[in-house]
Write a structure and sequence with these properties.
103 residues; mainly alpha; Arc Repressor Mutant, subunit A; two-stranded antiparallel ribbon; 2 strands; globular; disordered N terminus
């Protein structure tokens, strides 16, 4: 299957998921929205280290921060679905991405 992204954008997307912490963040958020502390606890890392990775994921559009709920969520769900279909071994399967109204 194709990722359906501009070939010029593919290196940036793969760079976003090339780090184990960022990949862990995506896996965690694919199951449910989480706070910064919940993510740090789940990934066994400090909030300071996590913050740098969250910023990269937010800049890439894969993660968004809901200021009102103070939770991080998957940003571009369809891009993440396409990514999983293209390279399923990178993200845990199944990738249960809830609809917008869930989580």
């Amino acid at each position: 299957m194709s990722l359906h992204v501009d070939p010029g954008q593919a290196p940036g997307l793969f760079s976003l998921i090339s780090d184990p912490i960022r990949l862990g963040v995506l896996a965690q958020l694919s199951m449910r929205a989480s706070s910064r502390q919940e993510l740090a606890d789940a990934l066994l890392t400090s909030r300071a280290v996590l913050e740098k990775h969250l910023e990269r994921l937010k800049d890439g559009g894969l993660v968004v921060f809901d200021r009102q709920a103070r939770l991080y969520r998957i940003g571009d769900r369809e891009a993440l679905r396409r990514l999983h279909r293209a390279v399923p071994e990178i993200l845990p399967a199944p990738l249960p991405l809830p609809d917008e109204g869930e989580a």
